[in-house]
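TASK: fixed-backbone design
INPUT:
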């Protein structure tokens, strides 16, 4: 793996005792002294490292493939590449991004079931062979543009228990799968495995069990037709934070026995997963309160028809649903603000709503939230804004995407260097990284009192 270079990204190197809260305060002071008080992110690369170890502990048989679409930040892609992760790419541009940092083509899957012929040709010319399909039309395109491709058949699942359903758009039924396998045989194409996705925000782990069972059926169909089936992609849908009903380990505790039952270790089947939120969690973003309104009656635009006679407040901030908070529209995210200033013990709270900066009435971040009264120029924190936020942000109304400031602790950086030089070895996978201070933000919290220590800005 190529070493880091200062053309790729830079981060703030945190000394022992220094927390993400300190960095946030430092950045706020810097921004507050300028005329352009823009929203910004603080991204903890150490958290990505910690999640990587957590992954291997919970799913030792499953190789993670990072879904580039959820956040194509070069710093994050480079970090995961150094850790040995694979990459789930959906376009020519994503393939180029990953290959430009030195990722070999065998660690890339072109996981878009419906691709342009020109982009299929680009994958072929770039040496990327693994790619998904779910229709006969796609088979015909691949036969024409990339006949040596290693194809993965995406099957539909029961995603009725998911927040974001995907099988309404992608995936072949079991009956259609047999027809597609037969057609691939006629076209002399190579089918190497099966993929599925139970939907984002899956709330029932048994959905994975049924999908794995269905994949086994398709494997048997393929083997019967003479294909060498050896790859299973169990998709995404895993949670990346702790404030969810169904925890990461609760899902993996159901998946592992299902894998052992339908694809035992001695079967020689390689198992992979396209992940997003699971790896990318501890990104926090700050934004400035630009304006506020005080109302005596219920705010115009609220969906709640209850009559209130008390004081309510409307806050306007400098990022919204057309920017980083598109996750509210696209991924049904529910965000909660945390205040930079600690409220006074006797300070009252008001019913508040929070709005983005554009002139569109749809641009509402929070409909109702109780908090103390703020002043223009105060800052709010929104945590866990890593996946599917800034990657899908637009510049509607001329508002630019927030800048991202990366941080990493010294132990995390030292371990990264070790992995870069020696690879991700079994001894590292087995160690209990929960005791290592890899992540500067992991235990810090917004209420944490800053420790007295220094930070150094470093280019890597």
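OUTPUT:
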């Amino acid at each position: 793996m190529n070493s880091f270079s200062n053309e790729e990204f830079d981060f703030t190197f945190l000394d022992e005792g220094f927390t993400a809260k300190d960095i946030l305060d430092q950045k706020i002071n810097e921004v507050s002294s300028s005329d352009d008080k823009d929203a910004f992110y603080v991204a903890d690369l150490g958290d990505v490292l910690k999640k990587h170890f957590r992954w291997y502990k919970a799913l030792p048989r499953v190789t993670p493939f990072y879904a580039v679409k959820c956040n194509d930040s070069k710093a994050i892609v480079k970090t995961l590449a150094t850790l040995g992760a694979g990459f789930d790419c959906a376009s020519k541009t994503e393939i180029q991004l990953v290959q430009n940092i030195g990722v070999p083509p065998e660690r890339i899957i072109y996981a878009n079931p419906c691709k342009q012929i020109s982009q299929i040709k680009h994958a072929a010319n770039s040496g990327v062979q693994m790619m998904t399909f779910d229709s006969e039309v796609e088979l015909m395109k691949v036969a024409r543009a990339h006949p040596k491709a290693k194809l993965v058949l995406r099957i539909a699942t029961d995603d009725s228990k998911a927040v974001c359903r995907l099988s309404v758009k992608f995936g072949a039924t079991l009956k259609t799968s047999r027809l597609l396998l037969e057609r691939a045989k006629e076209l002399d194409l190579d089918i190497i495995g099966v993929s599925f996705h139970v939907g984002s925000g899956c709330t029932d782990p048994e959905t994975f069990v049924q999908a794995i069972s269905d994949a086994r059926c398709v494997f048997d169909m393929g083997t019967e037709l003479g294909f060498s089936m050896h790859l299973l992609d169990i998709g995404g849908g895993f949670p990346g934070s702790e404030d969810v009903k169904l925890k990461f380990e609760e899902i993996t505790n159901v998946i592992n026995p299902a894998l052992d039952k339908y694809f035992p270790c001695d079967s020689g089947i390689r198992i992979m997963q396209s992940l997003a939120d699971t790896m990318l969690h501890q990104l926090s973003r700050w934004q400035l309160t630009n304006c506020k309104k005080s109302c005596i009656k219920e705010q115009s635009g609220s969906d709640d028809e209850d009559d209130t006679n008390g004081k309510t407040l409307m806050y306007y901030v400098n990022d919204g649903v057309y920017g980083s908070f598109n996750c509210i529209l696209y991924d049904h995210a529910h965000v909660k603000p945390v205040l930079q200033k600690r409220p006074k013990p006797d300070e009252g709270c008001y019913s508040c709503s929070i709005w983005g900066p554009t002139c569109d009435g749809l641009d509402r971040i929070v409909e109702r939230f109780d908090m103390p009264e703020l002043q223009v120029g105060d800052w709010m924190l929104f945590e866990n804004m890593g996946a599917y936020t800034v990657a899908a942000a637009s510049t509607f109304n001329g508002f630019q995407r927030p800048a991202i400031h990366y941080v990493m602790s010294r132990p995390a950086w030292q371990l990264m260097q070790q992995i870069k030089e020696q690879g991700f070895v079994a001894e590292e996978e087995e160690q209990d990284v929960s005791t290592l201070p890899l992540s500067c933000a992991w235990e810090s919290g917004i209420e944490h009192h800053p420790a007295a220590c220094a930070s150094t800005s470093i280019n890597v």
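COMMENT: The first strand starts at residue 10 and ends at 14.
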